[in-house]
């Protein structure tokens, strides 16, 4: 569940760099190549995590005392119980050592092993393992060393397979409950090495972990990343992943914690950096290509967007012309259908809320009345008045096209005409919704406009805003292909079409191209209440509204700024609900949040961003 504690769009926080699993492995290797010991790093990791777990436990007691209306905090003297669930990789190794350190600190420790054979704990097998060399590193594995340390300290363990062997469901649940009583549960089943869907006993173990923590109302802490969540993509296979309250993120922040399923499973994230990875030197490898890759690996795959850029107040001596003229093209009505006027109206309303000086909406004439009723500030023009509209394009500052434009041939011709005019008059362009549909069709036809648009984007702002379905069509891929690696998809979109991109959804990705270099961001703002019709139209309006305002500094009308403002506005509306103590206050929450609620919240966020 998302934490809405800091809704100020301006924060004094350092940007957080996000990395893929491959990059983290490269950082570790670079560190070891400098002579540092891998098991020493695991011990450091586990020791620091054990200390964090103690702090988390104290915090939990403190909260429990507060919710029991006790004014005085007292440290509970009863035995602290921890259940550590370990897998066979190094993540499990971390788990064994956490168990060892917590036992030393006086905790009652229960390790639950998953995927281990009975022989794995046999002391004779252990000494045989100790003598066996790991074929890669010429030493026993770190995870095995960790297991040996915990076993020689008599850390109590159980095999999950045995706890779970009962055939009857209720017996199974009961035996789990009895065997696994604890205050804190540690998930050390899989870390960044997860490379396929957890199946069989692993799937069962993840479900049992979630079930148990929920039944016990206990704290679930994930080591490095919740088991089941893929660090490089944020994907979860078949919804099988540990539901963590807290994730103790080792070495560097993983990209997958923040996008797609990441936020649903990670809980609060606490960084345990361990090594100075940003300054760590790539190790020397004679092969030139490999060396090149290693150096590049330290560039983050993305930056977490958490804070907006501040804006200066407007100059007193200014007028509407100082803040640009936005043209919204959409809201078509295909003969006989109800039409899509609302899309253009919503987009126009957020363009105004963002602060554009003037706005004209080119929509089907059938919607002019409705538009003027809800937004009398807007001017109108008939969407099908091609000559009038092309002449108008010359005068405006930005053209946003596509929201309810239609997907038929007639709409395609309009799209071509208006984009050509916008390119000819060197305008900033925003393309959304049906505009993206039409662009994909033009790409399939190998239409020259696609190349013209790409060339235009080199020196002018072109912003394209697909969700996964639209991106899939633009790339001629399946939606599942886009969803399986959204980072790859947004980069492909930018490579094919040029321009700046947002790939919408939970943890929207933003790609901005500056001086021939693409930079990717993950938006930390926004919530599931925004998964309603019309929210994308609102976003295109915010982008157009910022682009129109020529008094803003360049970073203040960037695509990432627009995506953040949109997300913050959604969060402000939802937060209003959780803060509400009076039954008489108007409540807007995630369920029932409407796109038309957004303009007021956008104005609120824009106001918070002004710094004198
Ligand atoms: N010494 C080091 O390099 C350090 C490693 N650390 C820990 O090591 C973790 C990474 O360790 P590993 O690379 O061993 O990765 P994991 O501990 O995630 O385990 C990977 C192993 O699980 C198997 N596996 C993957 N998906 C599976 C599935 N669905 N079902 C069954 N088996 C599956 C893989 O084949 C591999 O053998 C990090 O997340 C972190 O917790 C930390 O201790 C920091 C230091
Ligand atoms: N779960 C979510 N978390 C964060 N943002 C979301 C979520 N669901 C939707 N949004 C945001 O709301 C907007 C929805 O856009 P879109 O799908 O194009 O809607 P529509 O086509 O109905 O206008 C996007 O900006 C998206 O990122």
CATH class of the largest domain: Alpha Beta
Specify the overall morphology. Answer: elongated
Number of domains: 2
The counted number of beta strands is 18
Bound molecules: ligand NAX, adenosine-5'-diphosphate
Mean pLDDT: 89
CATH topology of the largest domain: UDP-N-acetylmuramoyl-L-alanine:D-glutamate ligase
Low-confidence stretches: 70-74, 283-296
CATH superfamily of the largest domain: Ribokinase
Structural class: alpha/beta
Q: Main sheet: which strands, in order across?
A: 1-9-18-17-16-15-14-13-10-11-12
Radius of gyration: 28 Å
Percentage of β-strand residues: 5-15%
- CATH-defined architecture of the largest domain: 3-Layer(aba) Sandwich
Architecture overview:
With 612 residues, this protein is of the alpha/beta class. It is built from 22 helices and 18 strands. It has helices spanning 21-33, 38-67, 90-104, 123-131, 142-152, 160-163, 169-179, 200-216, 262-266, 288-296, 341-354, 368-374, 386-395, 409-424, 434-444, 448-459, 468-475, 479-484, 486-497, 535-548, 559-578, 598-608, and strands at 16-18, 81-86, 108-113, 156-159, 184-188, 219-223, 246-250, 268-272, 302-305, 325-329, 358-363, 379-382, 398-401, 428-431, 462-464, 500-503, 509-514, 517-523. Strand 13, helix 14 (409-424) and strand 14 form a beta-alpha-beta unit. Mean pLDDT is 89; it is low at 70-74 and 283-296. Helices cover 43% and strands 14% of the residues. It folds into 2 domains: 37-63 and 98-274, Rossmann fold; 321-608, UDP-N-acetylmuramoyl-L-alanine:D-glutamate ligase, CATH 3.40.1190.20. The strands form 2 sheets. An 11-stranded mixed beta sheet has the order 1-9-18-17-16-15-14-13-10-11-12, sandwiched between helices. It has a 7-stranded parallel beta sheet with strand order 4-3-2-5-6-7-8. Bound molecules: ligand NAX and adenosine-5'-diphosphate. (6S)-NADPHX binds at residues 90-94, 191-197, 202, 224, 343, 404, 467, 537.
């Amino acid at each position: 569940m998302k934490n809405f504690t800091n809704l100020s769009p301006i924060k004094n926080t350092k940007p957080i760099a996000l990395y893929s699993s491959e990059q983290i492995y490269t950082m570790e290797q670079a560190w070891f190549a400098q002579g540092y010991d891998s098991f020493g790093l695991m011990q450091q990791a586990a020791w620091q995590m054990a200390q964090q777990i103690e702090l988390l436990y104290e915090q939990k007691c403190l909260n429990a005392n507060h919710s029991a209306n006790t004014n005085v905090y007292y440290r509970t003297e009863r035995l602290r119980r921890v259940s550590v669930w370990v897998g066979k990789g190094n993540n499990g190794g971390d788990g064994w050592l956490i168990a060892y350190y917590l036992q030393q600190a006086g905790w009652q420790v229960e390790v639950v092993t998953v995927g281990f054979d009975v022989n794995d704990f046999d002391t004779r097998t252990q000494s045989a393992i100790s003598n066996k060399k790991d074929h890669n590193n010429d030493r026993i594995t770190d995870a095995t060393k960790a297991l040996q340390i915990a076993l020689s300290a008599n850390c109590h363990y159980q095999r999950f397979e045995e706890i779970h062997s009962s055939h009857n469901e209720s017996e199974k649940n009961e035996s789990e409950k009895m065997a696994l009583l604890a205050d804190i549960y540690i998930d050390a089943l899989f870390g960044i090495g997860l490379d396929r869907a957890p199946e069989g006993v692993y799937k069962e173990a993840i479900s049992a972990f979630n079930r148990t923590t929920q039944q016990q109302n206990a704290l679930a802490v994930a080591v490095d990343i919740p088991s089941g969540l893929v660090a490089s993509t944020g994907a979860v296979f078949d919804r099988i992943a540990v539901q963590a309250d807290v994730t103790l993120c080792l070495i560097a922040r993983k990209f997958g914690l923040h996008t797609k399923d990441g936020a649903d499973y990670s809980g609060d994230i606490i960084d345990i950096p361990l090594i100075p990875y940003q300054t760590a030197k790539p190790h020397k490898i004679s092969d030139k290509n490999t060396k090149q890759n290693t150096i590049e690996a330290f560039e983050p795959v993305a930056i977490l967007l958490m804070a907006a850029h501040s804006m200066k107040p407007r100059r007193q001596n200014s007028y509407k012309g100082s803040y640009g003229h936005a043209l919204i093209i959409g809201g078509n009505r295909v003969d006989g259908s109800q039409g899509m006027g609302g899309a253009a109206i919503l987009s126009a309303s957020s363009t105004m809320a963002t602060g554009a000086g003037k706005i004209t909406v080119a929509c089907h004439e059938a919607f002019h009345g409705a538009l003027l009723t809800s937004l009398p500030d807007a001017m109108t023009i008939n969407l099908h008045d091609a000559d009038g509209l092309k002449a108008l394009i010359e005068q405006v500052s930005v053209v946003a096209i596509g929201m309810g434009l239609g997907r038929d041939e007639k709409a395609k011709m309009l799209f071509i005409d208006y984009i050509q005019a916008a390119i000819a008059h060197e305008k900033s362009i925003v393309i959304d919704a049906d505009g993206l549909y039409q662009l994909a069709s033009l790409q399939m036809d190998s239409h020259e406009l696609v190349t013209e648009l790409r060339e235009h984007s080199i020196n002018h702002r072109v912003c394209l805003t697909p969700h996964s379905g639209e991106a899939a069509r633009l790339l001629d891929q399946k939606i599942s292909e886009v969803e399986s690696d959204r980072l790859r998809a947004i980069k492909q979109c930018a490579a094919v079409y040029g321009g700046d991109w947002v790939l919408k959804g939970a943890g929207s990705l933003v790609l901005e191209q500056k001086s021939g270099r693409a930079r990717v961001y993950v938006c930390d703002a926004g919530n599931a209440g925004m998964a309603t019709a019309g929210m994308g139209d609102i976003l295109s309006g915010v982008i157009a509204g910022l682009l129109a305002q020529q008094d803003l500094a360049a970073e203040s009308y960037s695509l990432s700024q627009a995506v953040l403002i949109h997300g913050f506005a959604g969060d402000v509306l939802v937060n209003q609900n959780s803060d509400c103590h009076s039954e008489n206050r108007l409540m807007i929450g995630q369920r029932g949040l409407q796109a038309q609620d957004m303009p007021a919240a956008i104005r609120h966020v824009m106001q918070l961003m002004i710094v004198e």
